[in-house]
Design a protein that fits this description.
It is built from 16 helices and twelve strands. It is of the alpha+beta class. Helix 1 packs across helix 13 and helix 11 packs parallel to helix 15.
Length: 415
């Protein structure tokens, strides 16, 4: 098969020749630079996607997708609202809750906490809390049992284990003067949970809905409803529509608002890591520019001969674009293959490195996450590959146009 002239000449210039080893070496270095940049980008973004998914799972293990609150009149008939919410499209489960700011005391230790009153039967459906239990069982939070479940860090701070008793103090005001008279009650630690986030493990305590209501005194009631949707990412839209269908007047808060700082930090980190790693591809693209400029300088005579034989400037441009495109295509293709291979096997690779060099990447006694998660997104891979390829193509334009401007008579004058 006869190749088109630009493709034939461009591929011929890629062959390593003894008298042009420097140009060949720079071409190889450019291709390796693109390979490393693309592979690193795919691997790092996949790992960051994995950490984002892990964080999201931990955030949602004790946090509902949305809450409806601040409507005392409507919440007086919360059983009716829960039943109605469970019938709405997109809503997987609904559950009532009470939330109190309390002080926990054990021996000489004191700690502030958020006491959440829940209905364990509906709470299991409205969250993934069952996956977070370290000791005990959520079913032990029976009405009137005065049992409590504590976050692992909170239990450690107070020196509590299963079966220990903890004093719960709820500040309340009474009388016209608003005197502060705390409600004090002794609870038994029936369960301990661990999510892996300080906001939950070091602050949150849970008890049965009726026990929490008894701490509120007269006039106390349900704080709000917790909602779980079929699609967590649709929570902002579904939460508002659910509130409207339940009668309106609720303060609506979804998990993306409650954890906005975490999610914003991850987005910023991913953006910065992408920009930094793309510099590797950028450096490789500049190497392609230098390679082609050296090739154009070295091939001035060849270019002049092609022009005198009738080759148009567009043909000359195509010759050198072909050379750069082949380098970029090979580097990008190898980078995608290498990046996917590494991203899909981050766990085994990290375990091998730990065994070989005798260290732990994430020590279990320091970090909640002891493995490196990875989640490959096809869209990320496609964007990286296309961006890297386009960048290498753009890098070929200046040297190619410079070659096309070569004057045949000037190039052949001293030959």
């Amino acid at each position: 098969m006869t190749l088109p002239l630009p493709l034939y000449v461009g591929l011929r210039y890629l062959r390593p020749r003894r008298q042009h080893l420097l140009v060949s070496f720079i071409s190889l270095a450019s291709m390796l630079g693109i390979f490393l940049g693309v592979a690193a980008l795919i691997t790092i973004l996949s790992v960051m996607n994995g950490f984002e998914g892990e964080l999201r799972m931990r955030l949602l293990s004790l946090t509902s997708h949305a809450t409806l609150s601040d409507n005392p009149q409507a919440l007086q008939r919360w059983p009716e609202l829960v039943a109605k919410a469970n019938q709405l499209p997109g809503v997987r489960a609904a559950a009532p809750y009470i939330e109190l700011q309390v002080l926990l005391a054990h021996d000489q230790d004191l700690s502030g906490a958020v006491l959440r009153g829940i209905d364990p039967r509906s709470e299991e459906a409205a969250s993934d809390i069952g996956k977070s239990m370290v000791a005990g069982n959520l079913a032990d939070l029976r009405p009137g049992s005065a049992n409590v479940a504590l976050g692992r860090v909170l239990a450690w701070q107070l020196g509590l284990t299963l079966g220990d008793q903890v004093t719960v103090l709820v500040p309340t005001s009474s009388g016209e003067a608003g005197d502060l008279r705390p409600v004090v009650r002794v609870f038994t630690v029936a369960a301990i949970f661990e999510v892996g986030l300080q906001d939950h493990d070091g602050v949150l305590a849970m008890t049965h809905l009726e026990d929490a209501q008894s701490l509120q005194g007269a006039g106390g009631g349900v704080t709000g409803l917790r909602l779980l949707f079929d699609d967590a990412f649709a929570a902002p839209t579904l939460a508002r529509s659910t509130a409207a269908q339940l009668g309106g007047g609720f303060e609506v808060s979804d998990w993306t608002q409650q954890n906005a700082s975490y999610l914003r930090a991850i987005r910023i980190e991913k953006t910065m890591m992408t920009l930094i790693l793309f510099l590797i591809v950028g450096v490789a693209a500049f190497n392609i520019v230098s390679t082609l400029v050296m090739t154009v300088t070295d091939k001035r005579t060849d270019i002049a001969i092609l022009r005198t034989l009738g080759a148009k400037p567009g043909t000359i441009v195509a010759v050198f674009v072909t050379q750069g495109v082949v380098i970029g295509w090979l580097g990008t293709a190898l980078g995608v293959v290498g990046g996917l291979a590494l991203a899909l096997n981050v766990g085994p690779v990290s375990q091998f490195l730990e065994r070989t060099f005798g260290f732990e990447i994430f020590a279990s006694d320091v970090f909640y996450i002891t493995r490196i998660p990875s989640d490959v997104h096809g869209g990320d891979v496609a964007v990286i590959a296309v961006a890297a390829f386009v960048l290498t193509v753009v890098a070929t334009l200046y040297p190619a146009m410079r070659a096309a401007r070569t004057a045949p008579a000037e190039a052949l004058r001293y030959e």
